[in-house]
Amino acid sequence: MSGRHRSAAPGRGGGLVRRLVPPVLALAAAVALFPGGGTLAAWTDRASVAAEGMSTGRLDLAVDGAGGLDTTHARPDLALQGMVPGESSAATVVVANTGDADLRWSAGVTTDGGLGPALEVELWLGGRAGPDDTTYPRTESCTGGVRLAPGEAVRTDRGASRDLCVRVSLPVATDDAFQGRTTGSVSLRLDAMQVTTP
């Protein structure tokens, strides 16, 4: 028997240990670096934009420079005293858009009082009233323009204005029953609505 001793062959278990050591060490290093269970922290920020000082505009249809919401404007030059059949009065009304939006307006006429049913009213867009007539029979008229139909819409953009000639007449064929009437009135109503499309 020889005096040499054979060294023990390396076992399979020792090699497995050597192969597992580097990954285990890497995992341990990762745990050490991120002790919170692997959750990464990310910083955040937020910005906002504020718009202050907002306001609303207004829709304003002015007549002869008198504007505001639901205003009434008097035109005494349209009223004739002691009218007889065949006479008429006329006046030019300036309709202006002094508001913040384009609009369309339409005109409606109402006659009232004892003489109201006999009166006739004409509206001429773009027309101008002639000079006052003080001779008998007093006949004032509108020149130029296009006669407006009842309820016809007229577009008027911001800052623009339109001339509207109003003619009030007592027809020649007015019945005798209207003689001596002391009350009679004409009301011109202009209704405006915002234009929402170009």
Short description, anyone?
The protein is mainly beta and 198 residues long. 11% of the residues lie in helices and 29% in strands. The radius of gyration is 46 Å and the shape is elongated.
Describe the protein in words.
The chain is mostly beta strands and 198 residues long. It has a domain at 61-175 and 182-194: Jelly Rolls (Sandwich). Helix content is 11%, strand content 29%. The protein has a 5-stranded antiparallel sheet with strand order 1-2-9-4-7, with no helix packed on it. A 3-stranded antiparallel sheet has the order 8-3-10, with no helix packed on it. A two-stranded antiparallel ribbon has the order 5-6. The radius of gyration is 46 Å and the shape is elongated.
In spatial order, strands of the major sheet run 1-2-9-4-7
Rg, alpha carbons: 46 Å
Number of helices: 1
Residues in helix, %: 10-25%
Order of helices and strands: HEEEEEEEEEE
Largest beta sheet, briefly? 5 strands, antiparallel
pLDDT < 50 runs, ≥5 residues: 27-31
The CA-CA distance between the termini, in Å, is 117 Å
